Amino acid sequence: MLKFVARDGSTFIFREPKMKDAKACLEYINELVKEGAPINIDKEVALRTERARLRRQIDGIKRGQIIMLVAEKNGEIVSVCELRRRTHRMSHVANFGIGVKRRYRRLGIAEAISREALRMAERAEIEIVRSCVFEDNEPSKALHGKLGFVREAVLRDEIKDDGVCIKLTTPS
To answer: Span 150-172, mean pLDDT?
Structure first.
C-alpha cells in the first residue's frame, strides 16, 4: 500500500485489488465505458461478470502473472493499472494498461501509479513492457512518452468501433 498526494492536494491509496472491490471496480469500468473512453471494452459489464474477472486477476497476481494496482479514494476506485505477463518463451514480456476516471485526470495519478507498477515489473524480472494506445489519444501518448515508451509500430485494423477500424500505436 502506497499513499499518493495528487496535484490538487487530495490523497489516494495505491494497492492491489481485493475481492471486496468488485462493486467499486464495476463502477470504475462502467464509467469509462459510458464516457466512451478509448479502452478495449465497449459495453457495460454486470457485477457477476466483474466479480469473475476480478477473481481471475487476483489469482493471476498470486501466480505472478499479473501486476495490478488500483488507486482508491474513500472506497472509490479511480484508476487501475495492470501489467499482464506473457507465458512460456515470452514470460519476460508484459502488456501494460492504465485508465483513470474522467474527473480524476490531470492530477498525476496515471503517471504515479504507472511508475509504481513498472517498478514492480522490474522487481518481477519483466524485461519488456508493451502497450497499445489509440492513435488519436494524445494524453495517453504523452503519458507513455513520460514513462519512457517509444513508438514501435502502427497496428492497423486491430480494433473496430461501430465497424470502423481504429489504428493503435505500440509505444513499447
So the answer is: 61
